[in-house]
Amino acid sequence: MVKNAPDKAPLRTPLWAIGHLPRERRDRPSPSPASVQATFEAGAGRDDGPNSAGMGEIGGGPKPDTKEYDSSAPDRDRAWAAAAAVPDPEVPCVTVADLGILRSVEIEGEVAVARVTPTYSGCPATLAIELSVEAALREAGFEARVERVIAPAWTTDWITEAGRAKLTAYGIAPPVKGSNSIRALFGETVVACPKCGSEETERVSEFGSTPCKAHYRCTACGEPFDYFKCI
Amino acid sequence: MSDALLTFLLRLADDHLILGHRLSEWCGHAPMLEEDLAMPNMALDLIGQARALYQYAAEIEGKGRSEDDLAYLRRERDYVNCLMVERPNGDFGHTMLRQLYFAAFMEPFWTMASTSRDETLAGIAAKAVKETAYHIRHAGEWVVRLGDGTEESRRRMEAAIDALAPYVDELFEGDAVSAEMTKAGIAPEPASLRAEFDRTVGAIFAEARLTFAPAAYAQTGGRQGRHGEAMGFILADLQHMQRTYPGATW
Question: In what residue span(s) does the PaaD zinc beta ribbon domain sit (chain A) (predicted)?
Answer without folding.
Answer: 183-229
